[in-house]
UniProtKB/TrEMBL annotation:
<keyword id="KW-0732">Signal</keyword>
<protein>
    <recommendedName>
        <fullName>DUF1090 family protein</fullName>
    </recommendedName>
</protein>
<feature type="signal peptide">
    <location>
        <begin position="1"/>
        <end position="30"/>
    </location>
</feature>
Length: 114
């Protein structure tokens, strides 16, 4: 075997070792099937909705200022509607993560805080 081949082989192996490691680990890192119970757990979504509800309730407890009262009352009406949506979806036992997505979309329609 030529002298240069003995030094190139270890260098080539060192260069390709990370790629080989990823390639052999790819099946283990593959996405788990949807039937995995951990993927159907919505407790995180439930906790986030609880936080959003509490935040929205504290938002409408603040009295509207005299100037800009109409805008404030309109915003509070939207917040009350969101709270109603959350309550109705929970009564129907709708998916909590879907509820969170819907509420997130509605939150983006609120006017900015002044």
């Amino acid at each position: 075997m030529p002298f240069f081949c003995t030094f190139r082989l270890p260098r080539t192996l060192v260069r390709w070792l990370p790629a080989l490691a990823l390639w052999t680990a790819a099946p283990a890192m593959a996405v788990q099937p949807a039937s995995d119970p951990a993927l159907t757990d919505t407790s995180g979504c439930t906790a986030l909705i609880d936080i959003v509800q509490e935040s929205l309730r504290s938002e409408i407890e603040v009295a509207c200022p005299k100037n800009g009262r109409e805008t404030c009352e309109a915003k509070n009406g939207q917040i009350r509607a969101m709270l109603d949506i959350i309550e109705e979806r929970r009564k129907r036992k709708a998916d909590e993560c879907d509820t969170l997505v819907q509420v997130n979309r509605l939150l983006r329609t609120l006017p900015p805080k002044i």
